[in-house]
Q: What sequence folds into this?
């Protein structure tokens, strides 16, 4: 395996993990793919709203994407412990590329209907259910433990660079050429990450020693997390953040039109503003990955995210809304980055795939539930009140957490 020993993780500063050739390939390929992903996500949301003029339908699409996460992610974690993760990732990325091509074809032909988008969102969610645990656990095959935290922070930076730029590009491309081109570019972008995975030089895969059933191994992973108090709390934090803190994202197309009286470009700018804040936060964490106390980073994020969401709910002009969404993105990445790094540090290697399957379940499985709740509530009480309610619930959970588990702030 072509991993370069790094005696001093701080010696390469913000980009220490890029000293590993395999991680460099991953970083470049995944960056290209994520640009396409966010162009499609932005275009898909606005297309659904144009076809239905319904905030609730935006929630339906998000919920459809989440159903497979509930059904398959935990078993995806079992597969990530059993199979070569690179092979699993190539399969899932190829599958998602095919779905993007189908959506592009439907759109160009004028046949796309809301139910098509709901169905394709469900099928894409199935791919993500098997992709996410393998992707999370794969990081430690590309870097060593000393640069693991830096690699996780750079993954966040990569992801949020795409969030910062991809939605804006998607909004512009949608306005200029239509949604079909956004979906086509996303399909092409998967080739970059597939090529990167194929070019890696990795250590031979070692099959797990146990030969038990998938259900038995899944139970073992759940029992392991249930018996580990710190892992339990971290999973709970991710679940609450995904359910109440990030559900506002599904309302952005409706917010752009109804609250800010804009269009597809406004929708792209709102999503990109969140990405700018997340990117800045991720780069800050990457530059200090070996020095920060992650528990304290988590505490700051849990205060910043709901406070910024409350402020956003009261704004009715684009410029201040964009500024506050920068804070929303920064707070979210502080939470997710710190929680991810702590979970990966605390997890035992033989169960890493299953632990990250549970993590992915909390992260991805509850976001669609939050989307459904947010879309349904927005139809009844309006988008601003829905965002305020979610932020208030998250603040209450945060206060309860720090009263019950004050030692969490000292985790490194």
A:
């Amino acid at each position: 395996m072509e991993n370069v020993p790094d005696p001093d993780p701080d010696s390469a500063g913000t980009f220490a993990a890029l000293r590993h050739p395999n991680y460099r390939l991953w970083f470049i390929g995944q960056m290209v793919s994520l640009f396409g992903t966010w162009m499609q996500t932005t275009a898909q949301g606005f297309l659904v709203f144009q076809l239905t003029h319904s905030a609730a339908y935006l929630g339906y699409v998000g919920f459809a994407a989440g159903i497979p996460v509930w059904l398959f992610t935990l078993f995806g974690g079992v597969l990530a412990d059993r199979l070569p993760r690179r092979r699993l990732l190539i399969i899932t990325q190829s599958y998602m590329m095919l779905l993007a091509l189908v959506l592009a074809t439907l759109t160009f032909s004028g046949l796309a209907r809301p139910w098509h988008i709901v169905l394709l969102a469900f099928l894409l969610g199935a791919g993500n259910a098997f992709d996410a645990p393998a992707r999370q656990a794969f990081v430690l095959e590309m870097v060593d433990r000393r640069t693991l935290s830096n690699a996780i922070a750079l993954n966040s930076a990569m992801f949020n660079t795409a969030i910062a730029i991809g939605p804006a590009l998607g909004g512009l491309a949608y306005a200029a050429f239509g949604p079909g081109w956004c979906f086509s570019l996303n399909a092409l972008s998967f080739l970059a990450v597939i090529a990167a995975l194929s070019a890696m030089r990795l250590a031979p895969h070692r099959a797990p020693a146990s030969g038990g059933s998938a259900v038995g191994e899944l139970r073992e992973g759940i029992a392991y997390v249930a018996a580990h108090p710190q892992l339990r709390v971290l999973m709970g934090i991710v679940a609450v953040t995904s359910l109440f803190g990030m559900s506002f994202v599904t309302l952005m197309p409706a917010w752009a039109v109804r609250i800010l009286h804009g269009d597809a470009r406004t929708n792209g700018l709102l999503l990109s503003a969140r990405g700018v804040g997340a990117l800045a936060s991720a780069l800050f964490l990457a530059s200090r990955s070996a020095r920060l106390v992650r528990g304290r980073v988590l505490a700051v994020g849990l205060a910043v995210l709901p406070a910024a969401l409350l402020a956003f709910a009261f704004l009715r002009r684009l410029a201040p809304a964009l500024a506050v969404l920068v804070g929303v993105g920064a707070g979210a990445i502080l939470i997710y980055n710190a929680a991810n790094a702590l979970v990966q540090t605390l997890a035992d290697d033989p169960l890493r795939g299953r632990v990250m399957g549970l993590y992915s379940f909390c992260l991805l499985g509850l976001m669609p539930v939050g989307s459904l709740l947010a879309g349904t509530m927005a139809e009844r009480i309006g988008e601003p009140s829905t965002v305020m309610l979610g932020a208030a619930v998250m603040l209450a959970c945060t206060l309860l957490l720090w009263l019950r588990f004050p030692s969490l702030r000292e985790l490194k």
User: Anything to note?
Assistant: Residues 17-204+213-410 form a domain with the Growth Hormone; Chain: A; fold (CATH 1.20.1250.20). Residues 78 and 218 are 6 Å apart (CA to CA). The chain has a mean pLDDT of 83.
